[in-house]
Design a protein that fits this description.
With about 110 residues, the chain is α+β, with helices and mostly antiparallel strands. It has one domain: Orthogonal Bundle (Arc Repressor Mutant, subunit A). The protein has five helices and three strands. β2 and β3 form a beta hairpin. The C terminus is likely disordered. Keywords: DNA-binding, Transcription, Transcription regulation. Pfam families: HxlR.
């Protein structure tokens, strides 16, 4: 019999995905369009960005909004639960800045 997965472990795994936390971080200020997010995240492909945005939507963290324009305009914005997660990420950032030296233990920084 397989033990149930811990919800905390599940969330940490989800947020630990290379792009999920960064996408939430960039969406905290204002809604952004697909091309804005591509520009903000060097190294992400359009395909991966679409997959990550869909995963964030499925978790109830991000909402996709279509506007009745021509050509069609789509923007993504944080949902209330997404804002809660960004608050937790902010706490992690504060913790890291208080407890790290010139560089983290692996020699690099988040973001």
């Amino acid at each position: 019999m397989r033990p149930e997965r811990c919800p905390v472990e599940d969330w940490l795994g989800f947020l630990g995905h290379r792009w999920n936390a960064l996408l939430l971080w960039h969406l905290q200020e204002r809604p952004l369009q697909h091309q804005d997010l591509l520009a903000a995240l060097p190294g992400i492909t359009a395909k991966v960005l679409g997959e990550r945005l869909k995963a964030l939507q499925e978790r109830g963290l991000v909402q996709r909004e279509e506007f009745a324009t021509f050509p069609r305009t789509v923007a993504y914005h944080l949902m209330p639960q997404g804002r809660q997660v960004v608050g937790i990420l902010d706490q992690f950032e504060q913790l890291a800045s208080r407890h790290e030296g010139p560089a983290g233990p692996l020699g690099h920084r988040f973001g």
